[in-house]
Amino acid sequence: MQTISMPLEGMVCVSCAARVKRTLKGMDGVQDVEVNLERREALVRFSPDKVTPDRMESAINALGYKAGKSRAVESQ
């Protein structure tokens, strides 16, 4: 499993954050998603052999939000 932090633009309310979370959680290979509306970012834990950050970014962009370039997060 790998965890990334993905900056998000265009989220303005709790419903926006829930929509992003629901979309990412629905992708094959995504295990866990935490969306922080205040910090405008998503932490995503996923299996890199099933889904890529680029595919996740494209899915968010298709919703009308803008996903920035993700960065790896060290495992805790």
Q: Helices and strands, in N-to-C order?
A: EHEEHEE
CATH architecture: 2-Layer Sandwich
Question: What is the CATH topology descriptor?
Answer: Alpha-Beta Plaits
Q: What is the multimeric organization of the chains shown? A: single chain
Largest sheet: 5 strands, antiparallel
| Estimated structural class | alpha+beta
Separate helix tally? 2
Query: Under the CATH scheme, which class?
Result: Alpha Beta
Spatial shape: globular
Question: Which percent range fits the helix content?
Answer: 25-40%
Mean pLDDT, nearest integer? 95
Short recap of the structure:
By secondary structure, the chain is of the alpha+beta class. It has a single domain, classed as Alpha-Beta Plaits, CATH 3.30.70.
Description:
This protein has 76 residues and is of the alpha+beta class. It has a single domain, classed as 2-Layer Sandwich (Alpha-Beta Plaits), CATH 3.30.70. Helices cover 29% and strands 33% of the residues. The longest helix is centred in the N-terminal third of the chain and has 12 residues.
